[in-house]
Amino acid sequence: MRASTHPLLTVTARRKRLALLAAIMGSFVTGLDATAVNVALPAIRADLGGGLAGQQWVSNAYLLSLGSLILIGGSLGDVFGERRVFSLGVGGFGVVSLLCAVAPSIGVLVACRALQGAFGALLTPSALAVIVAAFPRQERAAAVGSWTAWAGIATVVGPLAGGYLVDAVSWRLIFAVNVPFVLVTLVLVSLAVPARARGATHARVDWLGAALTFFGLAGPVLALIREPAVGWSSPQVWAPGFGGLLLLAAFLEHERRTPAPMLPPGLFRRRNFSVGNVQTFAMYGGLGVTLFLLVLFLQEVAGYRALQAGLALMPSTIVMFLLSKRMGRIADRVGPRLFMGLGPLVAAAGLALMLRLHAHLDYFTDLLPALVLFSIGLAATVAPLTATVLSDADESNAGIASGVNNAIARIASLVAIAAVGAVISAQFSATLSRSLEHIRLSPLAARALAEARKQTLARVDPARAGVQVARAVQAASVHAFHVGIGIAVVLVALGGLLGLAGIRNPQRRVRSEDCSGGALAGRPLDSTQAAVNSPAAAGAA
Predict the structure, then answer these.
(1) What is the pTM of this model?
(2) Quick one: pLDDT at residue 515?
(3) I need a labelling partner for 378 at 20 to 30 A (CA). Which of 230, 254, 329, 526 fits?
C-alpha cells in the first residue's frame, strides 16, 4: 500500500519550486536582456546613430549602474527583506524596459539602460536570497545548481533570441518582450516567497559607499570610451579617469571605517572568497569582451544577419545546458580546485582558436570547434567558481555576499569592454592608416572611410569606396578583432592559473550520526567540497 503524502509537505514542496522558478525567471530576464542587446547594437546604431562610442554606452551604461549599485542592492535585501527588494527590482526592470523600447534617441536609450541596470542591481542579489529563504540548508546546493545553470544559459540564449527579434521585427522588441516575463515573475513571488520582518543585521544602508562606487567607476569608463576620439592628453580623458580612481580609493577607505559597510572587509580575509573573486574578475572580463566583440564581428565584418549571429552561438547554449549542473555536482563531490583551474584553461584554448577567424570564415571548420571547446571550459567553471566564492557566507549576509560576487563579474565586463574598445579602436586606426598611407582617396571613398573609423569593426562597399579601401578596412577590422580576442584569451587563462594556484578544496566532516566510531565523528573525511550555504550565479553574463 502506497504511503500517503502529508498535505503540508506537498504545499511546502510546491512553494519551494515556485520560489526557485521566480528566482530563475528574475535572473534569467536580466541576463537575457544584457546579451540580446549585443546582437542588436548594429541595428541600434543604424537607427539612432552614435558610432562605436554609442554602442559601447548602450552596453556599458547598464553594466555601470548594475555593477556599482549591486552591492547596495544586496544590503537592501538583507535590511528590508528579499521579497520586497526582489519585487521592486523586477517591477522596475519591466517598466524601464518599456521606456527603452520607445527611446527616440541614443542618449535617451543610454539613460534608460542605466536605469535598467539600477533595478537589475536590486533583483540580482535578492534572487539568491529568495532561494536561501525558501530552501533548507541541505537542499540549497541542488536548487542553486538549477539556478546557476539557467542564469548561465541566459548569456548564450540572448544572442539567438535577440537576433530573431531584430531580423523579424525590430531591435525595440528586445526590450518590450521583457514585460510578460516580469509579470509572471511578480505573480510567482506573491504566491511562493514569504515576506519577512526588516532585518537587524545592517542598522543602516551605506548610501555614501554606493555613490562613491558609482562615480568612481563612471570616471575610468568615460575616459576609456572618450580616448579614441580625443586622445590621452585631453582633459576629457585624464580628468574623469584620475577623478574616478580617487573616488574608488575613497570608497575603500570609507568601507574600512564605516560601522555598516556595504562591502564587509572581513569577507576578503577568507582565502577562497578572495582568490575566487579575483578569478571572477579575470574570467568575466574575458567573457564580456568575447561576447561583445564576437557578435559585432560576425555581423559587421563577416556579413551575418542578426539572427544568423544568434544561431551561430547555439552550440554554447546546448553545451551549457547539458553540462553546467552536472559539473557543479561533480565539483561538489571531488572539490572545485581542478574545475576552477582547468576549466578556464580549456575555455582560453577555445578562444585562442578564434584567432583563426577571418572575414570569409567557414562556420563549421573555423568557429564551431572554438565555440564548443570554449563552452566546455565555461560550463566546467561557472558553478564551481560561484559556489566556492560564496560558500563561507552566513545566511544573514546572503544578499551582500551574492552582491559582491555579482558586482565583480559585472564590473569586470564593464572595465574590460571599455578598455579593450579603446585598444582595438587604436589598432584599427593605426593599421588602416599604414595600409592607405600612400593612397589618394576620392571624396566618396574618404566619406566611407570616415564612417568605418567610427565603427572600428566595419566593412565598406567596394563599389562605393574602391576595392583597395574595402580590403584595407576589412584587414584592419580582422586585426582589431584578433587583438581583442587575444586579450580575452590572456584574461581567461589568467583566471585558470589563479584557480590552480590559490583555491583550496574545503574539507567535509563526517556527521556523528553517520559514523559508528565515535572517535572519527567530526574528523575530515576527504577534500570534497562542503554543502554550499549560499552560492549564486555570477554572470554570467
Answers:
(1) 0.72
(2) 38
(3) 526
